[in-house]
Amino acid sequence: MPISTSSASAAASPPSLAPPRPLRYFTRACWALLGAVFVFSGLIKLNDPVGTAYKLEEYFEVFAKDFSPFFLNFKEAAPFLSIFLSSMEVVLGVAVLLRWHLRQTLWVLLALLVFFGFLTFYSAAFNKVTDCGCFGDFLKLTPWASFTKDLFLLGLWGVVFWNQRFLRRTFAPGTTGLMTMTVATALAVGIGMRALGHHPYFDFLPYKVGNSIPRLMKAPEAARYRYTFARNGETKAFEQFPTDSTWKYQSMTLLNPAQSRPAITDFAVYDLEGNDVTQQILTGNKLVLIIQNSNKANRERFEPINALLGAAEQSRKHIGVLAITSTSPAKFDAFRHDVNLAVPYYTADATVLKEMVRSNPGLLVLRDGTVLAKYHYHDVPNLYDVEKLF
């Protein structure tokens, strides 16, 4: 019986080579994770652009010392760069998730990953910046963990880049895509600008509202150690220090480093004679004005601040009013006369003050060391709002 032409053609046609499903699913998983990580990382930084700016300033100081003083010129632009770089992360992450001009987006993403990879490797290899600020204060990573994270993202990028054939569908084509990206950019920049002019939306620092500073200055649990001793060629570990003097001490290992370390280790306030007044500050009702650096403090907002401090001194709530600064007494005396600040002041470490409030100046309301409220200088409250906290 003769074979039909159609049957013969079908028999001769090679089977179609469909792409392997596991690789397709793996690529899509890498694509989703890559985009999501960039969106999340950018939003976390935009939540606290002031903190991100502090981290950038730290990098600029390191580069100025190691390479050229030219990098110090970027310190003044740190707040702008903070919002620009963080917004770029969000926008690139959204572009990846929408597959909007995916090939071009991936090339820009590669440049950003290489840049971040250099920063984290340099920090890790030369022990320059102990926390890259990749996820703000939400998640602190060691330098080598940060570099490993960047290598992981580069791996995700490679999978997505070399398997773009599985990601051909664009979720926001043409004008829709352009409008979506414009909205994403506006939202990212708006979120950052709002946080820059006020306090972070979510506070991940030890001095957030509701936290007790005295409690966080104490370790959650006592330190536990493992002691290693040797005797006659035998090595043995002890949970308690042995009383048998025939054992020779070798080493000691802390078993609970995270649990035995207080969340706040450097909070200390001193008067002008150098006396420690920390306990005094953490007792009773207090309205504290934080001025990190008088040279950079916003002077235009001191009229409402001074009015609030003066009213608080007369309050029936017995509110202690004071200022804390990291500026030297000589410079601060000149500054407080310029702004008519008439309250007693004390000194503390600049880094501590930057963690306490993300504005310069800023206000902190305390009751026996518990943080009841924090105010940016754009949000100075009236006395009634402060009194009802106690």
Spatial order of strands in the largest sheet: 6-5-4-7-8
What's the total helix number? 13
Which overall shape is indicated by the principal axes computed on the Cα atoms? globular
Radius of gyration: 29 Å
Number of domains: 3
Amino- and carboxy-terminal Cα gap: 101 Å
Query: Sheet with the most strands?
Result: 5 strands, mixed
Strand content: 5-15%
Helix content: 40-55%
Count the E strands: 8
| Overall residue-averaged pLDDT value | 89
Query: Could you give the order of the helices and strands?
Result: HHHHHHHHEEEHEHEHEHEEH
**Category from helices, strands and their pairing:** alpha/beta
Low-confidence stretches: 1-13
SSE diagram, text form:
Layout: H1 5-12, H2 21-47, H3 49-66, H4 78-98, H5 102-126, H6 143-162, H7 174-196, H8 213-216, E1 225-231, E2 234-238, E3 248-254, H9 278-281, E4 285-291, H10 302-313, E5 319-325, H11 329-338, E6 345-347, H12 350-356, E7 362-367, E8 370-376, H13 383-387
Parallel strand pairs: 4-5, 5-6
Antiparallel strand pairs: 1-2, 1-3, 4-7, 7-8
Helix pairs in contact: 2-4, 2-6, 2-7, 3-4, 4-5, 4-7, 5-6
